[in-house]
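Please go through the sequence and fold tokens given here and tell me how the chain folds. Record follows.
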Amino acid sequence: MSEDCIFCKIIAKEIPAEILYSDERVTAFRDIEPAAPVHILVIPNKHIPSMNEVEEEDEKLIGHLFTVAKKIAIEEGIAERGYRLTMNVGKEGGQVVFHLHLHLLGGKPLRVHKY
């Protein structure tokens, strides 16, 4: 845990959040600035600043983020229609909070980006 990390504080229940899922490895909650009707963040309980700091020992944890995201997509009723999973890495990648997190977005047709 990092003392100044907002996501670590959510995991520790020091800051309120609408938590949808929590176990010993991950926590999932609604984004406070949603970019879609369904916008949920799935985060590891272990403080990992970004994907660049993921180690080989974290492989099962990272996989668990995705299986939890799938479970939540089903519970939110968006799995059949489709949804997007994204992970921003670093400032130029759009990462704002430096605690690794997976965005689960859905509930409407999502624009396809042309890079």
